[in-house]
Amino acid sequence: MKDSLARRQRRGGILILVLMLLFVMLAIAGLLIDVGMARLTQARMQSVTDAAAIDGGWQMSLGSDQTSVREAVANRTDDLFETWGPKRLEFEGGYDLDGDGILESSQTIRTETLGERIYPSLNQNLNNASAGDIVLGNYDQNAIPNALPGLPTGYDRGSSFIADVDDPNSVLVRLRRTDEQNIPGGTSDGNLPYLWSRGSTLSFGLKGRGIAVRSETIASLSPATAVGDATSDLLPSVLNAAIPLTEVLSETLSRNSLMSFSGPPQIGATVIDAPNATVTGTGYLPIAKQMSSGQWQVIGFMFANVSVDNIVPATPAESGFSHANITANLANISALSDELVEANQSLTGPYIARAPTLARSQQINGVSP
Question: H or E element: which one contains 43?
């Protein structure tokens, strides 16, 4: 009889333990679902800022004005959110149990806005405020800040990215669901709410504030490494001549200095040290340098209008082209020496043809924006 009673007591204790473990498992599962949805939203936001920054970078590569750059970024973002837009889920009512001014208990879903598409529309930030949605500036990959930008420390990136509209080489794009208010030149939607984990042991403050999610992308211009085939009148082509680097650096650009070139339109192509007096046209003009081996090779490109009399630097935009036709990708070019790559990456100045690359792509999360 005593043994039977003891067995029943043990079974009762095991049942209580199973129920407690089940509650913990359900709470963990709910938290994982909420965090997973936040990561999915964040990844999609990152895809949008990546594509928008690259579009803005291409406008910079064309030589377009900053208004066109900002419009390209904003339009690309709008187009992408037409095909993918998160659905709105908001809570209302409830109680503030911890006295922090945020309602977090006994709330109900706001049915009036449930399922509405969210269409973030970027602020074009014409004043180029450093905290804005679209910021033009100069990016230095060797000066990455230790702390990620955002509140409470602010959006100043220090020397790694300096806002500049006079001679920018990069465009920074941000999307925010951080519930921030009055951002100079910026916008933000509300935090992602906790849904499945609201019954867990998370602190009341976390449940009330939700999950802050941001994405940030910097597209930076790098010297072009190759010119594509001009398969359309909208695309500029490469000119069958090359100009010595010394002419570009001195900005003399003498017509008589042109050299013969008929190789593939990419860096490393061989240039013949012989005059070329016949080429004319508007397009990408290869820049040649005599390497340590004594061989002249293409190390980059500039955009120019070459006539029978002179060479005039230009931009694709002012020459009537709506698309660039270059790449800054080094991976698709074989047999590149360190000397050649260094010569290409060291090209600077207003005449150098440059293409956008993703310089920095960040997914930033956390409760505090």
Answer: helix 2-62
